[in-house]
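Support request, priority: normal
Reporter: lab tech (M.K.)
Component: structure prediction queue

Hi team, I submitted a job for tRNA U34 5-methylaminomethyl-2-thiouridine-forming methyltransferase MnmC from Chryseobacterium takakiae yesterday, and the status page still shows it as pending. I've pasted the exact input below so you can check whether something in the sequence is tripping the parser. The sequence length should be 224 residues. Please let me know if I need to resubmit or if it's stuck on your end.
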Amino acid sequence: MKREIKTTNDGSKTLYINDLNENYHSHHGALQEAEHVFIKNGLNLINDYEINILELGFGTGLNVLVTINEYLKTDKNHIINYFTLEKYPINESEMNDLAYFELFDNPEFKNIYQKIHQAEWEKPTEIVKGFHLKKIKCDFFDLKNIDLPKINLVYFDCFGARVQPDLWEKPLFEMVSDKMAVNGLLTTYSSKGSVRRILQELDFSVEKKQGPPGKREMINAVKK
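Reply from support: The job had stalled in the queue. We restarted it manually and it finished. Here are the results:
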């Protein structure tokens, strides 16, 4: 798929897929969206000592970076194990052009950003002390065959239903649910009624939350 770099309204960059007419992030602001959906309404709501995160999918690596940024603000007296799935990884040129480390004041972030992208696939890598990343190159529907610890937090960040409707239907959500711990949280930028109903059928408690800039609502869902 042919991809090009675009700048979103908050100054952060994203990738645009010509064939799908789809951005990897909201054009209103890639960084704002990631921090609002996955940090404010995700990571910051989890209080466990050891947090197992599952991301669908890795994409540009921005969600990993904002998660590390938030993790480094804490006393780091806990552990994060971050598992992320991706079928079509970005290339080195795209990584360099996106340059997400420039969005953060921490001078270590250039090295952290490179370490995230250079981490070997299928192999756990400690990016910073206590933060372990495992990138898994696969189709999302291979999730059922992947051995994971019980997941406390899911970043459901698939492409929109307009271009990939099968990713927003019951079979994939069922696979995700099977990997989650009781009281685990799934957070997503979507607020589709069909998604809410599917999650409720799978015994999630679903809550509509204020969406990121440019989007009225989003979903948080807790596995009962």
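Residues 29-223 form a domain with the Rossmann fold fold (CATH 3.40.50.150). The mean pLDDT is 96. Let us know if anything else looks off. Ticket resolved.
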